[in-house]
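Usage example:
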Amino acid sequence: AQKITQTQPGMFVQEKEAVTLDCTYDTSDQSYGLFWYKQPSSGEMIFLIYQGSYDEQNATEGRYSLNFQKARKSANLVISASQLGDSAMYFCAMRLHPPGNTGKLIFGQGTTLQVKP
Amino acid sequence: DGGITQSPKYLFRKEGQNVTLSCEQNLNHDAMYWYRQDPGQGLRLIYYSQIVNDFQKGDIAEGYSVSREKKESFPLTVTSAQKNPTAFYLCASSIFSGLAPNEQFFGPGTRLTVL
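Running the assembly step on the lines above writes:
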């Protein structure tokens, strides 16, 4: 069965420093996608970054980068130069590609990040 | 502006009542999803629909029902059979094609409380 594990319930980081949020996944499928979403206290889910299982380079989107280690089945999110507005809950999610694709996302439990001034 | 709207933002239900949560999207997305989120937890899939007039159960469909009569609308009914419905409900949509990224776009959510 597919599963996402986020082992850090809460993290603190000093403003302007970098922080890594851990994510490991479990699947026997070879083709899949990994996503990171941010959920502020307002509740909306904001898409941050995506990594495909066949992508050779790690994904980057502005201050966000994804440290993808396929052999270890990990997809850690790195936030550089943290800002106070980064304080939120962060979710790692996985979606299978065909033939197992239903489009649904499997989410981890989330990590709460607090940025300290 | 394109996006997903959910209403109401807050909903209170008495035990034994059915309630319907609205989800509308104007992104022309084929696929729509309903998730449930309990405090401090991740999202769990209730139902999803890849095309009009078709939908499938997710991981926690018991006590819920949906319909997909129009591409842009995917209402969720929380029935009295759902034993613990107090939660935050999120609707999402995406282009449905084989490969990524096709990220899901989420609505602002509905917070349901059973009195």
